[in-house]
Amino acid sequence: KIFITGALGQIGAELVMKMREIYGNSNVIATDIKIDKNHNVFQSGPFEILDVTDAKLMNELVTKYKPDTIIHLAALLSATAESKPLLAWNINMGGLVNALEVAKEHNCKFFTPSSIGAFGPSTPKENTPQDTLQRPTTMYGVNKVAGELLCDYYYHKYGVDTRGVRFPGLISYVALPGGGTTDYAVDIYYEALKSGKYTSNIAKGTYMDMMYMPDALNSIIDLMEADSSKLIHRNAFNVTSMSFDPEEIASEIKKHIPTFTIDYDVDPVKQAIAESWPNSIDPSSAIEEWGFKVKYDLPKMTTDMLQKLKEKGIGR
Ligand code: VAH
């Protein structure tokens, strides 16, 4: 049984459905701070309201369902965290320590994502190594570095089988991301179909690692099913599929919509966050230790994203 927090979020909304396909609907317990009775996550299996800062309720729910694995996704993303730093600390760190404590008490395997946001301006920017300097300058980055260290601590001190990946920007057509610095790379596809043009809040020439959601979901499942004795690193593995700037994703879209145009109205907060992150990271440890692989590059992702969004009726 798998217990997932943040189940209605950008990753959760798809991970719940995929894990229910693989492990059985009743074996995947979805939780989130709000309820959406029309959501397929709510309708297809067990769902509970849970604010991850409520340690008592989290413990009661894990006692009730007795999962063997906890996937902790509930968090505030980078731009939101920068606008509400103390709230971000309380949710991102308070929620994580509650989830780790419950995993320890109930002997659960544990996954939570880190991010390329765990690196800072003094980190090597090209082909960023698995093991390197991590002095992020954002609250989100502080949360992610502290989270990586806390997950390693629970592994070394209490033997909790904690595992994580440093996700790049994730691009998906199911649930929108909220408050992320890489959200532009999702919004651009919607606008390409709706209005045929996009005003990017990230500047031309700003490179960030990205990954299509199907590859992200597979990386979580592959890591959680990997042989524990083969893992040298744990929290958290660099993973990436591609790195591009707004101009490159725009020109890929133009191959499908020749009249598409991009212009710029840079958001200084998001731009500063983006510039503090790597341009490209090195996923070789994930490849060596648990066979990380991806199916989608920018051309394949763009073809699939535009087709799936059209099927959803976007732009009609
Ligand atoms: C964000 N999408 O923008 C998240 C992610 C690497 C980016 O952490 O905050």
Automatic annotation (TrEMBL):
Residues 2-226 form the NAD-dependent epimerase/dehydratase domain. One of its GO terms (biological process) is L-threonine catabolic process. It comes from the Bacteria. SUPFAM superfamilies: NAD(P)-binding Rossmann-fold domains. GO terms for molecular function: L-threonine 3-dehydrogenase activity. Gene3D superfamilies: NAD(P)-binding Rossmann-like Domain. Pfam families: Epimerase. InterPro entries: Epimerase_deHydtase (IPR001509), NAD(P)-bd_dom_sf (IPR036291), NAD(P)_epim/dehydratase (IPR051225). Belongs to the NAD(P)-dependent epimerase/dehydratase family. This is Nucleoside-diphosphate-sugar epimerase. The lineage of its organism: Bacteria, Bacillati, Bacillota, Tissierellia, Tissierellales.
